[in-house]
Amino acid sequence: MPVLRLIGYWRSDEQPWWPNPRDFIDALWHDDERRVLIRFLLAGTTARVHRGWSDCRFCGEENGDCDFTDGPYLWPQGLAHYVRVHGLRLPQEFISHAEERIGTIHAAVDTIETVETNDSWWAAQRHP
Predict the structure, then answer these.
(1) Could you tell me if 21 and 58 are in contact, meaning their C-beta atoms sit under 8 angstroms apart?
(2) Which is the most buried residue in 23, 44, 103, 114, by most CB within 10 A?
(3) Residue 36 in 3-state DSSP?
(4) Residue 82: other Cβ atoms inside 10 A
(5) Range of weakest confidence among 87-91, 95-99, 112-116, 117-121
(6) What is the pTM of this model?
């Protein structure tokens, strides 16, 4: 069974061993790179759902109740909020990974958009 690398879990009173999100703020981070990362984070596959909501460590906003994965990594649903709203810049290794994966996804979408489609089956469907 694969081992998922955790990212985006932040220090709290209950979990003081996680990194402090304030250490990751980068006000000068390039917006284009940040937008790519946000798209990647939001496109993750739901890996598990928790019994309660996580609150943002900065603004208190409810940040989701599940974790996403792309296979190698596992992150909380609210990680995109931290990147988008608070300007957190994640480690470059993860950003490079996200950029590579997003590039693969876009290439697949481009291929799908050029494939011929047949709509006759769906057009013939009627409510039972």
Answers:
(1) yes
(2) 44
(3) helix
(4) 25
(5) 112-116
(6) 0.80
